[in-house]
Every structure is written in structure tokens, then in C-alpha cells.
TrEMBL record:
Species whose genome carries this gene: Microlunatus endophyticus
Protein name per UniProt: Plasmid replication, integration and excision activator
Domain of life where this protein originates: Bacteria
Biased composition (Low complexity): 128-146
Region (Disordered): 123-146
Amino acid sequence: MSVQGPFKVECGEVFPHGVGVVGAVAPLIDFDRSTPENRVQARDKDTGLPVWTVDVMDFDPEARERTFKVKIAAEVQPVPPDAIDGVPVRPVQLDGLTVTPYQKEVGNGRQRIAYSLRAAGMSTPRYGSKSVSAVSTSSQGASKAA
């Protein structure tokens, strides 16, 4: 049996310690259709929607790779969750996440398995019935009151 194509996964399965946005959301440039004078944004081959890219950081302290590029196909530029005071990285939930494995050249003719990540969107992560920002705000209030 040959399994091909992207695998649908939950964000927490790929990033059990959480994940955060570490860069700005930017258009993915289609280098085949672009010229030095005219940069053309890539389009998703299935939906025709513009493709955006964002760098994220895996919060797993033992992760071998810490940052990843995630592609998001959306009509308008996705907006990361609001920043949390005192936290340099914005925690994020990657909605509609898919993973596509591929072989990556690592030098000297050696290859390893790498993963391409795509998401349908991003939102504020939720813990229990509260969002991260609500949990952060309530814990800050508790520490100030003490």
C-alpha cells in the first residue's frame, strides 16, 4: 500500500508542548511566475487561494528542530493571536493542520525525512474553557493580588 499526500493531524499531536508565532505572516512568493520587477504571490493548487507563510516555534524543550514554516491558504492575510504581556512568542493554535513528509537532502548524498506543514488558519489556543490570554490575565491578576 502506498500512502501519499498530506495527513490531517491535530495541532496538539504535532506540538504537544504548544507552538508559537515567531515572525510576521507574509505572502509566499511564486518564484517561477515572479520577475525581479514583479513579485507574484503563490496560489494553492487545490483551492486557488493566495498562500501565506509564517514561522512558528515548537515549545518542546527537547525538540531537535525548533522552528518551522507553516503555509496557510487564505483569501486575506491571516492575523496571529494577540501578544501576551511579558511573553516574546505568541502562542497559537494551528487550525486544519496537515503534514506532508518528504525527503530532504542534508549533504554528502545523505537524505532524511522532513515535513511540510500547512494550516487552514490560526487562532488563540484554548486550555480547558479559557483561552491562553484569559489564563495569562487571570494568573497575572492573582500574582498582583498576593
